[in-house]
Structures are given as C-alpha cells and as structure tokens.
C-alpha cells in the first residue's frame, strides 16, 4: 500500500502544479500517518533563503499597498476559483498527508473557499469611523492602512485552512504573506502555493513578485520569521508553549502577534438537554479528526440527574466507533499524526488512572502495521478535575465529570488555563443565557446545543487566556492585518485647541 500512497501523492502534487524537484531528493522526509512510511523528500529553505524571501515580501508590500482594495479582492476571488477547481485533489492530499477522513479533508478545502468568498466582499468594506469633534469646524475620522508583511506559522492538524484564514484577509488588506507550515505537512503547503501562483498568473502585473511565498523548514526558519523586524505581524497556530515563545519574541521588537494556541474545551450537559442530540454532538466533538483539533471536546461536565442515562450510552459509542484507514475504509476515526502523539496519549491515560480515573478504550488499533499509530478513542470518568484533565493532550481523550449546580459547572469549565471553545446542551433558557453571559463561559467561542468544534468562517475564531487572545477568519478579525490611523481635519479658518487649551502667540 505504501508505494501506492507515495505514487498517488506524487501524481496529485504534479497535477496541482508542484514541480517534482520540490518534493524529491530533499532533506525533509515526509511520512503519511496512514501507513507511517515515507512518501516524499522535500527541499528545505536555508536561512539565506528565508532572509531573501522576507526581503522580497517587504519590497512587494510597497507596491501591493497601492493597489485598490477591491482590485486586491479580485486576486482572492481567482484563488477561490483555483481552490474550487482543485478541491478534490487538494482534499485527497490532506487525507494522505495528515490522515483525516475523506469528508474532513474536503471540508478543510471548503473552508478555504469560504474564506476567499468572505474576503472578496470584505475588500469593499475595510471601513473606518467618522467621529464628532469637540472643536468647531473640525471632524475626526479613523481609517485603516495595510500593516506590512504577515508571517504565518501553521500547525499540522489544519495544514491548509489556517493559512487561508490569514492569507485571504491579509491579501485584501494590502499585506504580503510569508508562510512557514509545519514540517510534518509541507506537501499540502507546496500544493497551495502552486494554486496561489496560478491565481497570480491569471491576475496580472498588479501582483508584485514576493506577494505570497513559502518557507519549508523547522524551528530555526520559524525563528527567523518571528524575529525579523520587516515582518510587523506574525500569526502563529500551535501549542501554548510555542505561542508563549513567539509572543514574547515578537513583542520584544514591538511587532504584533495573532496567537491561536491550545484548547481544553468543555461541554456542559444540563438536566433539560436533548440526550439524543447531545450523544451525536459529543461523539463528533470528541472523536472527530482523531481528537487532533484545537477545538476538540476534551471535558464533558454532566449533571448528576442525567449522568447515568448518557454516559453508559456514550461509552458504548466509544466501544463501537470505527477506527481505520481513511483511504480504504469508511472509518470515522483515522490515525494519530505519529508515534510521539500516540505515546503522549498513553502516558496521559496512565496519569489519569493514577488520579482515580476509570478509562474506557484508548488502546492501539493495528491497521497498517507498526509504522502507523491508530488508537481507539478513550473516555475517562474522573472523580475531579485534577492532573491531566487540566492539560491539553492532542489525542482522542474525553474526560467526564459530574456536577450538581450550574454555577459549579461553569466554574469547573473555566478553571483551566486555556479558553478557546465551549458549549452547553439544554433547553432551559435561563441556564443557556447564564452560560452565555459575562459571568458564564470565559472562552472565545461559546455554543449552544452543539459541540465546541466546527467553527464557521463568518465569525471570528480564537480564544482567551493561554489560548492567546488572537482572532482569525470572519467578523472584524481583518483589523489585525491593518494599522489604525486617526485623522483630525480642520476645515475652518481659526485654530481652536482641544480641551480648551489656549496658546496665543500674539
């Protein structure tokens, strides 16, 4: 099977426009989690390559910022067309490189298409404010200007969608983009770069060289991007540990960072919840993408009155959920990205047991031999929110806890360092509104009668606390890619000063 996967990957890359020299004979070995074996060898960027690329992007900024925003939107529209035409191929490549089931690979590309549509409309709506002035014959306005080069550092679990959330907005805002993808998933990045280059060639001479570029490599390449003062905005997706380093280093040079970091997401199941709906939502939220989403459901806080009606049924779902290869079965749960992820999962389950947890599932499933790492999702009944429950483990582990009062459940949900996503299941309007209020969920995302994952691009995506505070995608997230300018205009013939100050020079 492995030779077939490598052959298919090569065919897909060539079909998507990637020169074979980019993914053969290089120093970076790429392995498919479907089988665990090598499928390509990618050419890595050197430090000098990175510096030249950033320099080219800085030069591109001088030209791109002068292109009218609706015209910039035309480039993103063309990118959306290229993605539509190549959705099947790119989605398949996501499945082969990351191990996502087929519908999730295609769904990720659909996210890219959706954000392009959003950004095209946005290119005519980069609006400021008109503010009333206290001085006669004056007016105040706010306007937004392009910020400059945007560095994007993305993680393996959404290898192409996260780039698009940033890039589509950055391009219409007037910013070039330099992308450093995860070294675990460079192939999908090469494919997206080829599609972007195709859109640029259709767009014409208004797009300067260096507008959208790619750096392949490890941490040292990312550090060059983070530390370069020619990159005023750095958007980084990954672990809290990584984000803390990126945030500090960017702040040291007074740059701006957009951080999308860890999530330890919880759902509260109230006495009035529709348990059939809850069961389906919890299953997808906790087991989708093999638990490798930042919005994966990791803690289920269940009211004591419905615990015995829900949890045994949920345990049965965990026992029978299909685990298998995403390319030759209809399994709902695919592989973990690599052996390190599987070992982290097993260590966490041992820790949960030491803290009094009762573990259901979690063992390895032999699908494609010793090189791949498939695991049965684990449901862990915990006596309290202690030990590993307070941490994010990027694997399909769901901790289940009981509660008595909603205030206690909300306090339990909020009592972790992360603050990305959350949800509540119920039909009691008072409880739902309490959860959504300022004294309710402290997360950036709070859903009702659905799980914490599956965000749409129309709303800003991101979280609080150790999740980093960044916002990407929809709503007014575009402002992070621009700089604000306040203008005071005197259209009179006198010079009244603000706050009643006088300065008479005779």
UniProtKB/TrEMBL annotation:
GO molecular function ontology, one term from the record: aldehyde dehydrogenase (NAD+) activity
Source superkingdom: Bacteria
One Pfam assignment: Aldedh
Active site, UniProt feature: 260
Oxidoreductase listed as a keyword: yes
Domain Aldehyde dehydrogenase as annotated: residue spans: 26-486
This enzyme's EC code(s): 1.2.1.3
Gene3D superfamilies from the UniProt entry: Aldehyde Dehydrogenase, Chain A, domain 1, Aldehyde Dehydrogenase, Chain A, domain 2
SUPFAM superfamilies per record: ALDH-like
Alphabetized UniProt keyword annotations: NAD, Oxidoreductase
Subunit structure: Homotetramer.
Family: Belongs to the aldehyde dehydrogenase family.
Protein's UniProt name: aldehyde dehydrogenase (NAD(+))
């Amino acid at each position: 099977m492995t030779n077939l996967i490598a052959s298919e990957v090569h065919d897909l890359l060539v079909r998507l426009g990637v020169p074979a020299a980019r993914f053969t004979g290089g120093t970076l070995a790429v392995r498919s989690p479907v089988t665990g074996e090598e499928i390509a060898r990618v050419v890595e960027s050197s430090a000098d390559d990175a510096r030249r690329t950033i320099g080219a992007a800085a030069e591109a900024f001088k030209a791109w910022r002068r292109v009218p925003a609706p015209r910039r939107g035309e480039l993103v529209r063309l990118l959306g067309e290229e993605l539509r035409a190549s959705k099947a191929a790119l989605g398949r490549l996501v499945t082969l490189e990351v191990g996502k089931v087929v519908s999730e690979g295609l769904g990720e590309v659909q996210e890219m298409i959706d954000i392009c549509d959003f950004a095209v409309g946005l290119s005519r709506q980069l609006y400021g404010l008109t503010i009333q002035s206290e001085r006669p014959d004056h007016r105040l306005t706010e306007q937004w200007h392009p910020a400059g080069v945007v560095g994007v550092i993305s993680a393996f679990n959404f290898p192409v969608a996260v780039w698009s959330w940033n890039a589509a907005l950055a391009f219409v805002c007037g910013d070039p983009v330099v992308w450093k993808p995860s070294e675990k998933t460079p192939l999908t990045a090469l494919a997206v770069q080829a599609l972007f280059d195709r859109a640029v060639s259709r767009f014409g001479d208004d797009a300067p060289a260096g507008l959208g570029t790619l750096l392949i490599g490890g941490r040292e390449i990312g550090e060059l991007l983070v530390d370069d003062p020619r990159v005023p905005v750095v958007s980084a997706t990954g672990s809290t540990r990584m984000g803390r380093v990126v945030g500090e280093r960017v702040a040291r040079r007074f740059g701006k960072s957009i951080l999308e970091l860890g999530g330890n997401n919880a759902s509260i199941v109230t006495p009035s919840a529709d348990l059939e709906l809850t069961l389906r939502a919890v299953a997808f939220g906790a087991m989708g993408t093999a638990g490798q989403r930042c919005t994966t459901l990791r803690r289920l806080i269940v009211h004591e009155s419905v615990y015995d009606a829900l949890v045994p049924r949920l345990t049965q779902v965990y026992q029978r959920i299909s685990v298998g290869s995403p390319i030759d079965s209809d399994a709902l749960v695919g592989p973990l990205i690599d052996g390190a992820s599987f070992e982290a999962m097993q260590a966490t389950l041992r820790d949960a047991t030491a803290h009094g947890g009762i573990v259901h599932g979690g063992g390895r499933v032999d699908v494609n031999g010793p090189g791949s790492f498939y695991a049965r999702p684990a449901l862990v009944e915990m006596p309290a929110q202690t030990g590993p429950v307070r941490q994010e483990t990027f694997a399909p582990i769901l901790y289940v806890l009981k509660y008595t009062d909603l205030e206690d459940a909300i306090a339990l949900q909020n009592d972790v360092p992360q603050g990305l996503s959350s949800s509540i299941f119920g039909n009691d309007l008072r409880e739902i509104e309490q959860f959504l209020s300022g004294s309710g969920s402290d997360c950036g995302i709070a859903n009702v009668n659905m799980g914490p994952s599956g965000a749409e691009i129309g709303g800003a995506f991101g979280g609080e606390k150790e999740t980093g505070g960044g916002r990407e995608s929809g709503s007014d997230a575009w402002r992070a890619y621009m700089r604000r300018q306040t203008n005071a205009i005197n259209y009179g013939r006198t010079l009244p000063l603000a706050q009643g100050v006088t300065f008479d020079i005779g």
